[in-house]
Amino acid sequence: MEERFYREQELARLPDFLAGATYNLAHTLLARAGKCLFVPIRSMQYMAVLDAEEIIFVDSQNRAWVELAWQHFRPQARNALDERVPYELVYYLPHAKETMKRLPAEFHKALQVLAERDLPLEDARVLPLARPARAE
What gap in Å lies between CA 43 and CA 112, rounded to an integer? Predict the structure, then answer.
């Protein structure tokens, strides 16, 4: 299935930070999914779309138009994996600033729901490795 998204002109581009736990979880799930990950944010009726470059957010009422995007993540700027990650917040639609008030927390919750759904059904187990025979 292929989805197409469109953008208006940028209204604003601002520096911001994403919580380390959210960034880590998002990229772990993206790595499992492949090139792209769709994350439904049911509490807000939004969809997040992640790829290696950015995270875009679309409203279910206006699905083809990107309302806002998180771009240019710089995880290398942090000193520890649990520290927040700097990025650029881009607004494309006038009401995006209002949406952003709830979005980080609701996005993290939606990622957690997705992660719980992807848990293996069986307990993981460690397989012993056989030692290679020594050549004498």
Answer: 13
d(CA 136, CA 118): 47
User: Do residues 26 and 104 make contact, with C-beta atoms less than 8 angstroms apart?
Assistant: no
Q: Do 44 and 57 meet the contact criterion of CB atoms below 8 Å apart?
A: no
Domain positions in the chain are 14-117
Token code pair at residue 40: 């439904």
| Contact (CB, 8 A) for 90 and 99 | no
Q: Which two tokens stand for residue 35?
A: 């090139």
Phi/psi of residue 39, each to 5°? -120, 110
CA distances to 57, 62, 91, 119 from 99, rounded to whole Å, are: 10, 14, 10, 30
Residue 110: name the closest of 66, 47, 58, 56 by CA. 47
Tens digits of residue pLDDT in 41-75:
999 999 999 999 999 999 988 888 999 999 999 99
The answer to whether residues 115 and 30 touch, using CB atoms and an 8 Å cutoff, is no
What are the phi and psi torsion angles at 3 (to 5°)?
A: -115, 145
Global pTM exceeds 0.85: no
